[in-house]
Amino acid sequence: MRGSIAIFLCLVAVGCTSNEEEFDTGFLDDTGDTDDTGELEECEVNVVAFDYGDQAAWVNGNPDCGGSSQSPIDLQPETNFFEGETPVLAFAYTTSALHVINNGHSIEYEIDDASNTLTVDGTDYALLQFHFHSPSEHTVDGQNAAMEMHLVHKSQSDALAVVSILIFPGEAEQPWIASASWDEIPAQAGECLEDEETVLDMDDLINGQLEGGTKDVVHYNGSLTTPPCSEDVEWFILGEYMLLSSEQIATFSDIYSGNNREVQALNDRTIFYDESYGN
User: Fold this and answer.
1) 0.85 cut: is pTM over it?
2) 243 FRET partner, CA 20 to 30 A, in 8, 64, 71, 131?
3) One of 99, 105, 133, 150 is an active-site residue; which one?
4) DSSP bridge pairs for 244
5) Over the stretch 66-76, which tens digit does the pLDDT of each residue have?
């Protein structure tokens, strides 16, 4: 069994700890308005709540929610992965100021400029924001991770690419998350950390804070996981993962628990698996 897939199955089945020796290694929303200096103006929150208890009703007024290429999906490494080259990914992340908002369905970190980019087969996508779901939206053999982080990118032609990082329970506090004003995330819809910016090293997230020691990736074509459920979204689920303490997970789930869309039918889509996304 491929190393990283073994990690996924092990983690989802029995949870994980911060002791990496136990594992084999190897597997949207708009940004805020900007002023003339490129910095975010006073935080304004567009609150949009979704009824996660009646997801079948999302198609009413949002016909794409009933489409044939929807997200999330269930990942079944032994049965529905196709091994082959995925698009080459190149992260060019840097230290950035962000605003933290409660948008009514998640906690979202808005990026205040276009300095963080993801290049996919030569096409540049700017990082707009990242947010979280609890439990995870993508599943592995039908099982959820504790949380999932989505990093949402947009190209100049308005194409979307989302990078997913699965989150599992660990023994220690995750320092990068702790530095993200995690203890201060706004608990009420419409709230934000007013007149305050959180400065984060986004490069350190990708190259220093993930567990597993691999650069493998799963890629498929899907959709936004909230209405309007627009399709033609490029999804990249990293084999590396993040460990948060139980207290850090509870900080989010005490505000949003169950903000995960149900898995959707794969239909005739192909899930591509590659051992190295920077090949």
Assistant:
1) yes
2) 71
3) 105
4) 169
5) 999 999 999 99
**72 preceded by cis ω (within 30°)?**
yes
* Backbone angles phi and psi of 61, in degrees to 5: 85, -10
So what's the pLDDT on residue 84? Answer: 82
- Measured CA to CA, the distance from residue 54 to residue 258 in angstroms comes to 12
Conformation bin of residue 167: beta by default, left when phi > 0, alpha when psi is -120 to 50: beta
Q: Give the span between the Cα atoms of 39 and 98, in whole angstroms.
A: 10
Active site residue 105: yes
Q: Which residues of 13-22 are buried (b: 16+ CB within 10 A; e: fewer)?
A: eeebbeeeee
Task: Report strand pairing: 217-223 vs 147-155.
Answer: unpaired
The CA distance from 144 to 168, in Å, is 10
Report CA 276 to chain centroid distance, whole Å. Answer: 19
Output the six-digit token pair for 271.
């899930």
Q: Quick one: pLDDT band at residue 28, thresholds 50, 70, 90?
A: very low
- The partner residues of 111 in beta bridges, in order of sequence, read 98
| 233-251 confidence digits (pLDDT tens) | 999 999 999 999 999 999 9
